[in-house]
Structure formats: C-alpha cells, structure tokens
Design a protein that fits this description.
Bound molecules: NADPH dihydro-nicotinamide-adenine-dinucleotide phosphate, 3-(4-hydroxy-phenyl)pyruvic acid
Number of strands: 8
Number of domains: 2
Largest sheet: 8 strands, mixed
Shape: elongated
Strand order of the largest sheet: 3-2-1-4-5-6-7-8
Number of helices: 18
Strand content: 5-15%
InterPro entries: 6-PGluconate_DH-like_C_sf (IPR008927), NAD(P)-bd_dom_sf (IPR036291), Preph/Arog_dehydrog (IPR050812), Prephen_DH (IPR003099), Prephenate_DH_fun (IPR012385)
Enzyme class: oxidoreductase
Distance between the termini: 38 Å
Helix content: 40-55%
GO molecular function: NAD+ binding; prephenate dehydrogenase (NAD+) activity; prephenate dehydrogenase (NADP+) activity
Protein name: Prephenate dehydrogenase [NADP(+)]
Family: Belongs to the prephenate/arogenate dehydrogenase family.
Length: about 475
C-alpha cells in the first residue's frame, strides 16, 4: 500500500509505480517532469511499433522503464495516465484497461473528457479507481503555476491524495472539477479561442501572405494574434480536433462565434454604424463592466511592450523580435475577431474572468488580455477616440480591411461547419493545409511566444491574487 502523502524522497520500495500510456508530446513531458521530481519508477509505452525507438531514447534515464505495450504498463503501475488521442481513447482503454492492476488509480490526459469518462466506466475493472487529470498547457510551457485539473470521479480521498502527492513537484495549481464541469469550462475557454485563431490562420493564408510581410501593422495586440495563431498551428491537429468535435458544448460556442463574426461583418458592410456601435458596446459592458468592480489590474499593461515579441522585420534588418522606435501609432484595425469574441461571450452570458481564475490556459489569458485592451483602453486625449471607437470607425469607413475581414468570415464559418459535422478528416486537411503555409515560421514564433507567455504570466500573478 502506497502512502497517500508519499514524496520523491521516500525509499524506492515505498514509491508508487507510475505508468504512462502514450509517449507523444504530453507523455514525454510527464516522463521528464516526474523523473526530474525524483520519482524512481516510471513505466512507459507507446504503440508497439515505437518500442525500440523509445527504448533507445530512454536508455540513459534510470527511472524510466519502457514496455512494448499498455498491458505491461497497466499490470505493474499504481497510477496510470493515458495520454493518447481523444478520438482513440475508447479503443486504447478497451485494449489495456482490463490489465490494470487491482487497486490502481487511472487517469487520462485527454483535453475533452466525455469520451474518456465513457471509456473508463465501460472498460476499467470495478476494483480500480478513477482520478483523472488535465494539465492546461502545452508541452513547451513551464508547468509551474499553470492550472492542473483533477477529477475525483470514482475514487476515495486517499486515491486523490496520492495523485496530488505524485504531481505536486510540477508546482502547478490544482483545480478540482467534475468530468462535466471540465468539458463546460474548456468549451468556453479553449475550444472557442482555438476557433478564433484557426480562423485567423486560414484567413491570412487565403489572403496569400504572412500578415507581417504584407505591409500590415503587426505590433501591439496584433503580435499576440500572430504568435498565438502560429503556436496553435505548430501543435498537433488532433489535439484541437478532439477538444472541439468531441465536446458537445464546444459546438454551441463555436457556432455562436461564427454567427457573431458574420453578423458584425454584415453591419460593417451595410454601414449600419449606430447598430454596430450599440451592439458592440452593450456586449463590452456586459463582459467587462463587471470586471471585479473594475479594480482588476489589466492583463496587458501596455500595448507597446508587446512590440518586443513581434515577428516583423526590424528597421535595421536584424530579423525579428526587437522593438520599433515606439513613436509611430499603429493604424486602427477593424479587429473583427475580437469584436466577435466579446459579442459571443455576451450572447452566451459567459464571464471570461470567472474562467480566468479557475482554469485558464495561457492562450485564453492572452486572448482576454487583448480583448480587454481593445475594450477598456481610454482615449489618449479628449480629441482622440478610444481604441474601441477607433476600431469601430475603421471597420465602417476604411475599406482596406474588407477583404481580410471577408476571408475571416468565410474561415470562421468553415471551421464552425467542420466542427459541427464532426468530421476529423476534414479538420485534419484544413489544419494541415494552413500549417504547411506557416511552417517556416514556427521556430521563431515558439521562442517569442514562450517569452510572451512568460511575461504575461508573471504580470498576471498580482492581478489574480
Ligand atoms: N499537446 C498539448 O498541448 C496537450 C494535449 N493534451 C491531450 O493529451 C493527449 C495527448 O496529446 P499529445 O501528447 O499532444 O499528442 P501526441 O500525438 O503527441 O501523443 C499521443 C501518443 O499516443 C500514442 N498512442 C496512440 N494509440 C496508442 C496505443 N494504443 N498505445 C500506446 N500509445 C498510443 C500515439 O502514437 P501515434 O502517434 O503513433 O499514433 C502518440 O505517440 C491528447 O488527448 C491531447 O488532447 C492535453 C494537454 C495539452
Ligand atoms: O493553451 C491552449 O489552449 C493550447 O493550445 C495548449 C493546450 C492544448 C490542449 C490542451 O488540452 C491544453 C492546452
């Protein structure tokens, strides 16, 4: 019997055997973090076809034992994490679940929990516990301070405590949810955020050019848009497909987002300025008016700070990433993606700040940050409009955004349809087509994006407190 409060300094024979089934990005991240923590018995596997490759990769890591398949891992482990594609979780648990050691605790890392719950209930023997997990960040982000969802589904408190003890060295922030609460929260935070950024990528691709190379201003909050879009396309398609297609609440959110995009664009096209301003400002009031009584520190302190993370070439020709001279004011942009996001939150009565404190991913935090910046920045002088007014004016009077905005409408509708049809193959084709277009830029975007996330996370600590 493993003590629920065990820690990595315990003698090896008192430590739990930790099993990792699926050694892709997340499985590898868990193996790395668990080994670094000092856990000495980590048993892992991927598909049998990857057995030799994995054995070679971990030959010098003493704590890691590689198995040919999930039967070997399941039979010896006290705590098992399945980190496989959400689409396949049913089949994988059906195959290996019956081999689970009596009294073990089983978790899944899947980003959408509905199929995982069904699979665990159906295929795990009655004498094993279910305490699921979800690290709410990608494999290249530090786990420190990030939300880590724990779901005590079919387990006594002692099993939950053991999972807490095993994962404590990650220094993540535990968030306790039920399976159902998890899927509702992640539909609101992740699925719709991804839909917005996937649509930006598709639209920019269809406009045939990297935005920062088409003479379009890419500083300030545009920097966040470009970096996050690239981060998402650099990840695996199935992560986003799974969490959108297999989460029933996500369809509703993504559909409303596409509707908001379309309706706002129609008002812009028709020049219905009064109605556009009324609708957007009312939505802004509903979403941001209640922002902790207006006392919460903004997520983005200054738009200019973001220029240091920009991908656009610098004036001295030194590639990317450095600041401009800071004197030129960015031209107003219609910011259709952001106006629609706030309209969507308002239409579905979602308070994004409530999610921020519970289970926000770094990307969601940044996305609220830019929306908040657009909606809450005051005008710099009595004669100049606020950022929001400048954006609304531009959307009505400046035709130069129309073609990009039209592409964005088409893209948002396309992604929404793809999700509502539940078509994984179509999703993969759309995703990978755009990924190919941006592929050359992933390296530098990853570096700049990680720095940007680190900066925002550090600045958010105080505000969250
Ligand atoms: N990437 C991210 O940012 C995050 C992902 N997640 C979730 O974690 C899970 C894993 O994602 P991620 O690691 O990124 O994806 P990967 O594709 O990198 O990893 C999944 C791994 O599972 C393997 N696998 C599939 N079937 C089996 C099987 N029968 N036995 C053993 N291994 C198998 C896959 O092999 P093969 O490739 O050969 O099919 C692959 O190596 C997903 O459910 C995802 O939604 C959660 C948080 C963040
Ligand atoms: O932060 C995001 O939304 C990401 O894109 C990274 C990510 C992807 C899937 C998850 O289940 C958790 C985090």
């Amino acid at each position: 019997m493993i003590r629920p409060d065990v820690d990595p300094s315990a003698p090896e024979d008192e430590q739990p055997v930790i099993g990792l089934i699926g050694m892709g990005e997340m499985g590898k991240m868990y193996a790395r973090l668990l080994d670094k923590a000092g856990w000495k018995k980590i048993h892992v596997c991927d598909l049998p076809s990857r057995f030799e490759e994995l054995k070679e990769a971990y030959k010098d890591v003493k704590s890691v034992v590689v198995h040919r398949d999930g039967h070997g891992v399941s039979r010896v482990s006290d705590f098992i994490v399945y980190s496989v594609e959400a689409e396949f979780i049913g089949n994988v648990v059906k195959e290996y679940g019956p081999s689970t050691k009596v009294g073990a605790i089983v978790a899944g890392q899947t980003s959408v929990k509905a199929p995982e719950k069904i699979a665990f209930e159906k295929y795990l023997p009655d004498d094993v516990h279910i305490v699921s997990v979800h690290s709410l960040h990608g494999p290249t982000v530090s786990a420190i301070g990030q939300p880590l969802v724990l779901i005590q589904h079919r387990a006594p408190n002692s099993a939950l405590n053991l999972v807490e003890s095993i994962l404590r060295p990650f220094k993540s922030r535990y968030v306790y949810l039920s399976y159902e609460e998890h899927d509702l929260v992640t539909a609101n935070t992740q699925a719709v955020t991804h839909a917005a950024f996937l649509s930006m990528g598709t639209a920019w691709q269809c406009s045939s050019g990297y935005p920062w190379e088409r003479g379009i201003y890419v500083g300030g909050i545009e920097t966040v848009k470009v970096n996050i879009m690239l981060r998402i396309y650099a990840n695996k398609w199935h992560v986003y497909a799974g969490l959108a297609i297999l989460n029933p609440s996500a369809k509703v959110m993504i559909d409303q987002y596409a509707k908001s995009v379309t309706e706002l664009f129609k008002l812009m096209l028709l020049g219905e300025g009064d109605e556009l301003r009324r609708r957007v400002k009312e939505a802004g009031e509903r979403v941001f008016g209640s922002r902790s009584g207006g006392k919460r520190k903004p997520i983005l302190l200054e738009e200019g700070i973001l220029d240091r993370f920009s991908l656009r070439p610098t004036t001295n020709g030194n590639g990317n990433g450095s600041t401009t001279n800071g004197t030129s004011k960015p031209p107003a942009n219609s910011h259709l993606a952001l106006l629609a996001m706030v309209d969507c939150w308002s239409a579905l009565s979602i308070n994004p700040y409530a999610h921020l404190l519970i289970a926000a991913t770094p990307l969601f935090r940044l996305w609220i940050g830019v929306a908040e910046y657009l909606f809450s920045s005051p005008s710099s002088s009595p004669s100049s409009p606020s950022a929001l007014d400048a954006s609304l004016d531009a959307s009505l009077s400046n035709n130069s955004f129309r073609s990009d905005d039209l592409e964005f409408v088409v893209a948002a509708r396309g992604w929404s349809q793809c999700v509502s049809f539940g078509n994984f193959e179509l999703y993969r084709e759309r995703f990978e087509g755009t990924k190919k277009f941006f592929e050359g830029r992933f390296g530098e975007a990853d570096k700049l994006g990680s720095e940007m996330i680190k900066y925002i996370m550090e600045n958010s600590k105080e505000a969250d407190a």
